[in-house]
Design goal:
By secondary structure, this protein is an alpha/beta fold. The protein contains 11 helices and 12 strands. The longest helix is centred in the C-terminal third of the chain and has 15 residues.
Amino acid sequence: MGDAKIIACRARVLDCNMFPQIIDTIIEYASNASLQAMRVNKGFRAFIDSHLAYHLVVSKLRREDGGPLNRYEVSSSRGVVGQITFTAETATVLAASYFRSARVLDISIAAKWPSMMPALVRACPDAAFRFKLHTDLRHLNFSNATVVLLGEDKPVSVAGYLAYGIDEVRGVDTLVVHIRAPGRRDDMFDLNVKHLVLVLHPWPSVGIERHFHIVEAVIRDQLGVFWDLLWAGFVNRIPVTVISVESEPHPRIAEYKEFDLGVSIREVLTLRRSNLGLPESSPLPRFFSLDEYKHEVGNETYQIHINSGFIDRPHNTLVKFRE
């Protein structure tokens, strides 16, 4: 198999379950083609798949003439690992074992076929699902999963995020929302998730607008859609974590002297908590810088929540060989 060789010493074959780091090294330097060939061996397959499929990206394929095609490319940091074909009746190839090994699945497509999104969710029972562009998540049944909305299409209102169906999605443990545009305020909505993480990206300041002396108005005016999502989490008694991508105060509020976003929001919500009759146990949001959040949750979770590119498989993720 080229890169893959039997490891032997004085007529003894090393037990790969006892020395997984040796196989780790071999696979690290093996070509994508060699790894695909090694999958033929059932004993190697789970281990190979844990390398090939830790992070998969599903993207659209098109005909050479530019016309649409219901075929999609599946790739990892090593390159293309396969294709899947969807029809109106069925989704095929998703039973391939490398999908079952996925821990992170990026989906950069719209759900054209009704069977497509449920099939992807079922095929990756242990994966975190990340969506770069708008995808309708309504009525999907996740299994205690992490769902990350990378927001690269920059929704400009809560209505833009509700188009994802975040108010109807089920089975989500942690919902991570990247906010890349200020947006505007909309009506209140419900959330049914266990944890909410808001990643606040910078965008250019357009200057002071109004209500410069009213803290809540400042937040609502300058960070509209962020406030709506934060408020939805708060009134639904969901633990909210806010991560600021910039180490400096957000450009939209930086011009307000002696204004600390985290402290100010917590003060506003503490007051609102009593006004709304919410119990003292209702959690207030926690605020982190990127470095603080990485220290809080660990590198793997940090990469899944924050890094929009390919994520390397952690070296301590060991998979036992089958007999």
